[in-house]
Design a protein that fits this description.
The structure holds 2 protein chains of 2 kinds. Chain A is an alpha/beta fold. Chain A is about 30% helix and about 25% strand. Chain A has 4 domains: about 140 residues, Rossmann fold; about 180 residues, FAD/NAD(P)-binding domain (3-Layer(bba) Sandwich); about 50 residues, no CATH class; about 170 residues, FAD/NAD(P)-binding domain, CATH 3.50.50. In chain A, a hairpin with an 8-residue loop joins β13 and β14. In chain B, β15, α6 and β16 form a beta-alpha-beta unit. Classes of the chains: A alpha/beta, B alpha/beta. β34 of chain A pairs parallel with β24 of chain B, so a sheet runs across the interface.
C-alpha cells in the first residue's frame, strides 16, 4: 500500500433507528480520535442524496482514501454506498460497512451505554480493517442471454413472455404434461367474471408462438451449477408415452382409471389423459405416476407403455422460480373433511360448478342442496397452541389473501344460479381488499347471504346430524355479530375456503440455495428494496412461490421478475463481487489441502508450472466459481491463501480493535 | 428550453414512479421523470417507518431518490406539470409546464442561506401544516434535487434571500416555461390523495382540533417531524389515550367511497406500534369492521400488535364529538359486547382512505366508477390502460400499499419496455454492463 490511509468515518442515525439507542455523537467523537481518521461525522440518514453528497465531498475535498460507514445492514445499502464512492473517484472496495442497526441498536434497545460501547468497538474494528484495504476490481463475466423459467402456470408464462419480448431467449419448464397451472382449474375469475381458460389460452398462444421461447413439459430441473450469468442446468424430461398417430386409439383402449386431480378427485380419468378440452399441448400424455404397467390392447396388439427419460443440459444467465402454490388440503376430520361426504373444499366446489354448467339446482351426490355454509380461513390464520400444527410442526399463521374474495365470488355465482339457496358465510374478517372486490361483499350482504363471524380461538364445528334430521350436517358456531350467540345451522353442504400452501419443492430450493421465510414460502431479499429477487444473485421469484397472490398480483410479480432479468442479462455481461480466494505464489508450495477443503466445483485446482527450469505446483483459483467461503484459507499450512477484501491480516486487526479496552481505545487516539 | 426525446416518460416521482423509472433506466431505455412538486419522493418520503419491516422510511426512499438523480439514463424534471398529451405516429408529444422556482436551478447549490435569511414563515405542507417553513427554502432536508424554491404567494419581496445568495441564484423575474417531451411510451404514477378530513359531518367535519389524519401522525412519529414527538395539535398535550377510527374514508356509502383503501388497517396497526415506542404509557384503541392484514407477513404483524397490548374493538364509529377540553368523544356500537358506548380520548386518528390523484382527462383517459384509471383487463395486463402506450402503476391504478406499488412499478416498466421495443426496436444489445 503506497499512500497513507486517510479514513473518513460516518455514524448514521438511520432516522432514529440507531440514534434512539446508540449515542451516535459520542461514537463519532471517539472515532475522530483514532489514528488515520481525518473526519468523523454523523448523519440523520446517510443514504439520502445529501448524505451521499457529503461522503463524495469529503473524498474530493479532504483527500479521503478509505471510507467506514456504520449504518443499517450491508444487505440494504452497501451497494448504495459503493456507487457513491465510485462517483467520487475512489475504488469502491476501499469502503467498509458496519451493520450498526441490526447488530447493535436493534438488539440492545434497553442498554444505551452498552450499545454505544459496542458501536465504538465495531467502528474501531472497521477503521482497523480500512487501514489494510486494497483496491479491488469486480469480476467481469460474459452472461448467457437466456433465462430459465421454472413453472408453466400464469406467473411462469407471463414472465417468459415478458423476458422474450425484450429479445432474450427463454426456456420454460413445466413439471406436468400441460401448461396453465392452477389457473386452468378455475372457472370464472374475479373481479371481472372473465373465463379463466380464455385468458389463459390467449397467454399460452403468445408463449407457444414466440420464437424466443422453448417449452419443456413433463420436465424437472435436476441439477444446478454455476452462478449468475452462467448457470448450468440439467433438465430431466419424461416422455409423453403416446404419439399423434396412436394417441386416440390408445386413449380409447385404455381402461385404467385414477382420481382426476384436475377436478380435485371429484371425477376419475384414464391414465392416458388430457386434463380439459383445449389444453396445451393438445396431445394426451401418460400419467406415469399412476400407470400400472399393464398392456393396452389396440388393433389386436397389446402394447406396454414405456417412459423414456431424457436429459438435457443448458446454460442460463438467470432463473425465474414460478413454481406456484398448492391448495391447502384439510386434515382428515378437520371440519368433518373426508369423514362426512357433505364437506368439500372451495376448489372442489369450483370444479363441481364448472362440470355442471346450467344446472337448475345445486346437487351434491344426488341430493339437492337447500342450505350451504362456507367457512373462511381453513388452513390460514392458524394460531399456535390452538390449531393443530401441519406435518412439519408449523401452523399456517398467514392470511392466504385470495380466499375471501374467491368465496364471495362463489357466493355471487351460487346466488345467480340458485336463487333459493340459503347461504351462510362463516368468517373472521372479510378481506375483500382489491379493486372491485368489495362489491362482491356488498352484493352478498344485499342478496340475503347470512354472515356469521367466528373467532380464530373458537372455530366452528361440523357434525353429522342424527338420523332422521332434515339435513345431513350440523354446524355449531359462536356468532360474534349477535353478541356471541351459539348457533346450530343445519346444512346440506359445507364448503371449506382453503388457503394456499407452499409447494413441496425442497430439492429445487436446495439446488438453487434460496431461502424460505417463516411462512415457508420463498423469501425475497427485502419486500421494498428488492421484492422479487432472492439472496442468490440471478434467482428471481415470480408469483405464488413467494406467497399468496391472486391472478392479477401474480402477473404483476411475474412482469416485475422479467424486468429484473432483463436488467441483469440485457447487456450480456455481469459483474461479480471480487471477494474470492487469492493465492500468494511466494508462499504456496502446492500441498493441495485447499483443493481438498473446497466444496465448489472447479473453484480451485493444483497446476504445475515451469519456473527457472524447475517444475513447481501451486493452487490456482477460478474466481467465477469461488464463493469466497474461506474453507481453503483455514486449512492452508503456509497461510498462502486469503479471501480478497477479507484477509487474515484484516481480521486480526479487527479482532485486536474489538478486544481493546475502551479506555485504551480512547487513549490510542 | 430544449425539447426532450426519450423512450419513456414517467409522470409522478413518488415511490412507484421512481421505481418504474429506475427499472426502465436499468434496462437501457432513456427516461424522463416529471414531478409536480419541487422534490421527488412523493408521499412516502413524509412517512415515519414502514410496514411490515418497520424500516425507517428514509432508508428505503432516499437511496431510490438518489439513484434516480444519478442514473445516467434518467432525466428528472421537478416542479413541472404535464399540460397536454398529443398522440403522434410512433408515440406521444407531451407538453410540460416548468413552474418558476424563482431560483436558478443550474447555479443553486442548496446551501440554504436564503432559507436562513427569509423572514416569512408559513405552515409547512411537508409537515401537513403541523410545522412551519420559510417562504424561500429547500423543500426538506433530504429533497432531491437540493435546490431552493421560493413560494411567491407568501413572499414579501424583501430581497433578503437575493442579498445572501452566494451564487446569485435568486431570480424574481422567472416566468413559467413550456417545453415538450417526445416519448414513445408513458407510465402514469400520479398517486393518490387522502379522503378529506372534513368529509364526514359525523366525525366532526374537520372542526375538532384533536381529530387528525394519519399522515399527520406519520409526521409526529417521523424522526424529521416537526416536534420530534407525539403531541396533540389542539393544545400540545402529550396524548395518553389514542383512538383509531378505521374505514373513516372508505367502505362508506355516505362518502360515495364503497371500496376498501387497502392500506389503512396496516398503517393504523403500524402507527399503534410506533406510538407504544414513542409513548410507552399511552393506550391505543383501534375501532374496526374487519382487520384486513392480507399481505406477506401482515397477519403476524397484526398478532404482534395485539400481543403488545393494542386494543382492537369491533364496531364502526357512529359519531365523534368533543368535551369542553377539546377531548374527542367516540360513540360506537361494540358488536362483540352488544352495547353502545361513548369513550373520551386525548387524540383520535381518522384512518382516511385513498382517492384518485390527478385528473385523467389530459391523458385522454376516463376514470372507472371508483375514480381511478380504468384498467380494461386486470387479469391479463394489469398495467395497461385503454390507450396503447400509456401504462399505469402504483396508487394511480387503485389503492395499494408501498410493497404492492413497487412490484406494479416494475411490472409497468416491463410492459412499457415491451411496448417501446415493439415500436422502435431499440435493442438491449447496446446496453451497459449490469451490476450485481
Amino acid at each position: 500500500m503506497s499512500e497513507k490511509p486517510k479514513i473518513a468515518v460516518y455514524t448514521c442515525y438511520c432516522g432514529g433507528n440507531i440514534s434512539h439507542t446508540v449515542k451516535c455523537e459520542q461514537v463519532a467523537k471517539l472515532l475522530a480520535e483514532q489514528p488515520d481518521v481525518v473526519v468523523s461525522r454523523t448523519n440523520m440518514s446517510l443514504c439520502s442524496d445529501a448524505g451521499q453528497s457529503q461522503i463524495e465531498e469529503d473524498i474530493r475535498e479532504l483527500g479521503v482514501n478509505r471510507v467506514v460507514i456504520g449504518a443499517c445492514a450491508p444487505s440494504l445499502h452497501e451497494q448504495t454506498f459503493r456507487k457513491t464512492v465510485i462517483r467520487a473517484g475512489l475504488n469502491p472496495y476501499l469502503y467498509h460497512h458496519i451493520g450498526l442497526r441490526e447488530q447493535d441498536s436493534w438488539v440492545h434497545t434497553c442498554d444505551a451505554d452498552g450499545a454505544t460501547c459496542k458501536a465504538v468497538r465495531l467502528m474501531a474494528a472497521g477503521v482497523a480493517k480500512a487501514r489494510l484495504l486494497d483496491p479491488l476490481e469486480p469480476i467481469q463475466l460474459e452472461a448467457e442471454k437466456r433465462a430459465l423459467v421454472i413453472g408453466g402456470g400464469v406467473a411462469g408464462l407471463r414472465a417468459a413472455l415478458d423476458i422474450a419480448d425484450q429479445g432474450l431467449k427463454v426456456v420454460l419448464v413445466e413439471k406436468t404434461p400441460f401448461l396453465g397451472g392452477r389457473m386452468a382449474q378455475l372457472d370464472t375469475v374475479f373481479p371481472t367474471g372473465e373465463e379463466a381458460h380464455i385468458l389463459l389460452a390467449d397467454l399460452i398462444d403468445k408463449v407457444v408462438n414466440h420464437d424466443k421461447i422453448t417449452i419443456f413439459t413433463q420436465t424437472e430441473v435436476t441439477k444446478v451449477s454455476g452462478y449468475v450469468g452462467n448457470y448450468g442446468i440439467q433438465l430431466t424430461q419424461h416422455s409423453r408415452g403416446v404419439s399423434a398417430e396412436n394417441a386416440k386409439a390408445l386413449q380409447d383402449a385404455c381402461q385404467q382409471m385414477v382420481a382426476d386431480e384436475f377436478n380435485y378427485g371429484l371425477t376419475e380419468r384414464k391414465v392416458i389423459y388430457q386434463p380439459y378440452h383445449g389444453c396445451y399441448p393438445p396431445l394426451p400424455a401418460v400419467d406415469w405416476e399412476h400407470y400400472n404397467g399393464e398392456p393396452i390392447n389396440i388393433n389386436g396388439k397389446s402394447e406396454i407403455l414405456k417412459d423414456e427419460i431424457q436429459q438435457f443440459e443448458l446454460s442460463a444467465g438467470a432463473v425465474v422460480v414460478a413454481t406456484g402454490f398448492d391448495p391447502y388440503v384439510p386434515r382428515e376430520g378437520e371440519y368433518g373433511y373426508s369423514e362426512l361426504p357433505q364437506v368439500v373444499t372451495l376448489p372442489q366446489l369450483i370444479r363441481h360448478m364448472a362440470l355442471n354448467p346450467g344446472a337448475k339446482s345445486l346437487e351434491w351426490q344426488g341430493h339437492k342442496v337447500r342450505d350451504i355454509v362456507l367457512i373462511h380461513c381453513v388452513g390460514s390464520r392458524e394460531i399456535e397452541g390452538i390449531d393443530e400444527p401441519q406435518e412439519d410442526g408449523q401452523v399456517n399463521n398467514y392470511c392466504s389473501r385470495v380466499c375471501c374474495t374467491a368465496t364471495l365470488h362463489m357466493i355471487e355465482e351460487l346466488r345467480e344460479n340458485f336463487p333459493k339457496l340459503n347461504i351462510y358465510d362463516l368468517y373472521q374478517d372479510i378481506r375483500t381488499y382489491g379493486r372491485g372486490h368489495e362489491d362482491y361483499y356488498i352484493n352478498a350482504l344485499d342478496n340475503g347471504t347470512r354472515f356469521v363471524r367466528y373467532h380464530g380461538e373458537e372455530k366452528p364445528k361440523v357434525f353429522a346430524a342424527p338420523k332422521g334430521d332434515t339435513h345431513p350436517v350440523l354446524v355449531h358456531v359462536t356468532d360474534a355479530l349477535t353478541y356471541n350467540q351459539e348457533l346450530e345451522i343445519p346444512v346440506d353442504l359445507v364448503v371449506l375456503a382453503t388457503g394456499m400452501q407452499p409447494r413441496q419443492i425442497d430439492d429445487l430450493v436446495k439446488m438453487l440455495k434460496v431461502s424460505r421465510g417463516n411462512d415457508r414460502f420463498l423469501l425475497e431479499v427485502h419486500p421494498k428494496l428488492r421484492p422479487v429477487e432472492t439472496a442468490v444473485n440471478g434467482v428471481i421469484l415470480a408469483g405464488t412461490a413467494q406467497g399468496p397472490m391472486n391472478i392479477q398480483e401474480s402477473i404483476s410479480a411475474a412482469s416485475a421478475a422479467a424486468a429484473k432479468v432483463i436488467s441483469l442479462l440485457g447487456s450480456g455481461q455481469v459483474e461479480l463481487q471480487p471477494f474470492v480466494a487469492a493465492v500468494d505464489p511466494e508462499k504456496c508450495n502446492g500441498t493441495g489441502a485447499c483443493v481438498e477443503a473446497c466444496e465448489y466445483e472447479d473453484a480451485i485446482a493444483l497446476e504445475t508450472f515451469v519456473e527457472d527450469g524447475k517444475e513447481v505446483t501451486r493452487a490456482v483459483v477460478t474466481p467465477a466459481n469461488c464463493t469466497g467461503c474461506g474453507a481453503c484459507v483455514a486449512v492452508c499450512p503456509n497461510r498462502a491463501i486469503d479471501v480478497q477484501g477479507w484477509t487474515l491480516a484484516q481480521y486480526e486487526a479487527m479482532v485486536d480493535a474489538i478486544a481493546m479496552d475502551i479506555v485504551d481505545l480512547v487513549e490510542a487516539g | 428550453m430544449n425539447n426532450v426525446k426519450v423512450d419513456a416518460l414517467v409522470i409522478g416521482g413518488g415511490i412507484a414512479g421512481m421505481q418504474a423509472a429506475l427499472d426502465l433506466g436499468d434496462q437501457g431505455y432513456q427516461v424522463a421523470l416529471v414531478e409536480k412538486e419541487p422534490s421527488i419522493g412523493g408521499k412516502m418520503i413524509t412517512l415515519s417507518k414502514v410496514f411490515p419491516t418497520l424500516d425507517c422510511c428514509s432508508c428505503i426512499t432516499t437511496p431510490k431518490m438518489s439513484a434516480v438523480a444519478h442514473h445516467p439514463n434518467i432525466q428528472m424534471f421537478t416542479y413541472c406539470e404535464v399540460e397536454s398529451v398529443d398522440q403522434q405516429e410512433n408515440g406521444f408529444d407531451v407538453s410540460v409546464l416548468q413552474k418558476p422556482r424563482y431560483v436558478n436551478a443550474d447555479t443553486c447549490t442548496g446551501c440554504r442561506l436564503c432559507e436562513y435569511a427569509c423572514p416569512i414563515t408559513v405552515p409547512s405542507s411537508f409537515d401537513r401544516g403541523l410545522g412551519s417553513y420559510r417562504t424561500a427554502r429547500v423543500p426538506f432536508s433530504t429533497a432531491v434535487p437540493q435546490i431552493a424554491v421560493l413560494d411567491i404567494e407568501n413572499c414579501i419581496l424583501c430581497g433578503k434571500c437575493e442579498k445572501v445568495c452566494p451564487v446569485g441564484a435568486i431570480d424574481f423575474t422567472q416566468q413559467p416555461e413550456t417545453f415538450s417531451i417526445d416519448t414513445t411510451s408513458i407510465v402514469l404514477a400520479t398517486g393518490f390523495e387522502l379522503t378529506d378530513l372534513d368529509a364526514k359531518n359525523e366525525y366532526g367535519a374537520g372542526e375538532l382540533p384533536n381529530v387528525i389524519d394519519p399522515l399527520m401522525m406519520e409526521r409526529f412519529l417521523a424522526p424529521t417531524g416537526p416536534y420530534g414527538r407525539v403531541l396533540r395539535p389542539g393544545d400540545g398535550m402529550e396524548p395518553m389515550t389514542i383512538a383509531y377510527v378505521q374505514c373513516a374514508g372508505s367502505r362508506d356509502e355516505t362518502l360515495g367511497i364503497e371500496y376498501c383503501s387497502r392500506t389503512c388497517c396496516m398503517y393504523a396497526i403500524k402507527q399503534s406500534m410506533l406510538i407504544s415506542g414513542a409513548l410507552p404509557l399511552a393506550e391505543v384503541t383501534i375501532y374496526y369492521m374487519d382487520i384486513r392484514t392480507f399481505g406477506k407477513g401482515y397477519e403476524q404483524f397484526y398478532q404482534n400488535a395485539k400481543a403488545m397490548g393494542v386494543e382492537f374493538v369491533r364496531g364502526k364509529v357512529a359519531k365523534i364529538t368533543e368535551d369542553e377540553n377539546h377531548n374527542p368523544v367516540v360513540r360506537v356500537e361494540r358488536t362483540e359486547e352488544g352495547d353502545v358506548v361513548e369513550r373520551t380520548f386525548d387524540l383520535v386518528v381518522l384512518s382516511l382512505g385513498m382517492v384518485a390523484g390527478d385528473p385523467l382527462s389530459k391523458f385522454g383517459l376516463t376514470p372507472a366508477e371508483d375514480g381511478y384509471i380504468k384498467i380494461p383487463s386486470v387479469n391479463a395486463s394489469p398495467c395497461e390502460t385503454r390507450r396503447p402506450g400509456i401504462f399505469v402503476t402504483g396508487t394511480a391504478g387503485g389503492p395499494m400499499d408501498i410493497v404492492d406499488s413497487i412490484v406494479t412499478a416494475s411490472a409497468a416498466a416491463s410492459a412499457a419496455s415491451a411496448y417501446i421495443r415493439s415500436k422502435t426496436q431499440v435493442g438491449i444489445e447496446e446496453r451497459e454492463v449490469a451490476h450485481v
